[in-house]
Amino acid sequence: MRSWNPFSKQELINAIEKCNNSSALGPDKLTWNHIKSIIRNEDCIFKLIDIANACIDLGHWPSHFKTSTMIVIPKPNKFTYDSPKLYRPIVLLNMIGKLFKKMIGECLQFHTISNSFIHHSQLEGLKQRSTIDAGVVLTHIIHS
Prior knowledge:
The protein is mostly helical. The protein has six helices and two strands. It has a two-stranded antiparallel ribbon.
């Protein structure tokens, strides 16, 4: 029996709509643009949701999603490239796996915030936590 709510169509759409269409290809050779065009088909979007829900239900992350490719690019505006620190390694992951990780991350963040699992002064990297919130916390600390 499930102890969580399965992912919805809207959660998948929300996760993908913010993705940059100019991302580099991962090992699966898909781009966000490809996935955005795939999910225009209702059957495809529900198949992706079924796969994401099955990963959670089974507690299994398929090895296909773990596959990555690393590319090394030179840092711009350097005179010579004779040292390894003058290059930047970039790891490219499979896009479907990245999409599912985004959906899982959104869900975890929602539940940790709504259930007060995170201290009220923890603001970095959380949604609905702004500089105004940081100012309120700082003012409270100073006042105390």
